[in-house]
Design goal:
about 0% strand, about 180 residues, mainly alpha, about 75% helix, flat
């Protein structure tokens, strides 16, 4: 008697999950550029991470400096959310690119990889922070996430500069 109820519960949970996943995909595919820009976290800016943020990859600070510039877990969480938004921006750019000016698939793959690595580093850093506050391991993961975030933002800027120069000022202002 218990086994059929368990099967029904599992199948129901899977149906709900796939229904939500499909709804989110549909929502994502009809999203506008302004809607994506509006999703970037405006309460935290990554401009403090580097002197030439958005134009050049790399950081010129120590792990302790980056932790302070991130404002601890607040900046990490903002990077986690913005990485997802920039990933959606890359997908938007791909969907709306013209046949005459196609987007290099390597750039898109690099952006996807960066977003996933950023999210993983942030989750690891937040998990470590929850267990032991701001230790060296937390700061190293935060530094790695910030470095990846800086590179991803620079690649996104190059992508927009080459394929959608009209929206670049909005992206720079939102970051």
């Amino acid at each position: 008697m218990l086994f059929p109820l368990l099967q029904i519960a599992i199948v129901s949970a899977l149906l709900v999950y796939f229904g939500q996943w499909r709804r989110n995909m549909r929502r994502r595919n009809v999203q506008s550029w302004d809607g994506l820009l509006g999703q970037l976290r405006s309460d935290w800016s990554a401009r403090d991470l580097s002197d030439q943020f958005l134009w050049k990859e790399g950081l010129n600070a120590t792990t302790d400096d980056i932790w302070q510039r991130l404002d601890g877990p607040k900046g990490l969480w903002a990077m986690f959310q913005n990485a997802r938004v920039m990933l959606e921006m890359a997908d938007y750019a791909k969907r709306n690119s013209s046949e005459l000016n196609p987007i290099d698939p390597m750039i898109l793959e690099a952006l996807r990889s960066d977003a996933m690595q950023i999210r993983l580093c942030v989750l690891m850093a937040l998990g470590q922070y929850a267990l032991s506050k701001a230790t060296a391991g937390v700061k190293v993961n935060a530094f790695r996430a910030a470095s990846l975030y800086s590179g991803m933002a620079a690649r996104m800027t190059i992508l927009l500069q080459d394929h959608a120069a009209l929206v670049l000022p909005d992206f720079v202002a939102a970051m």
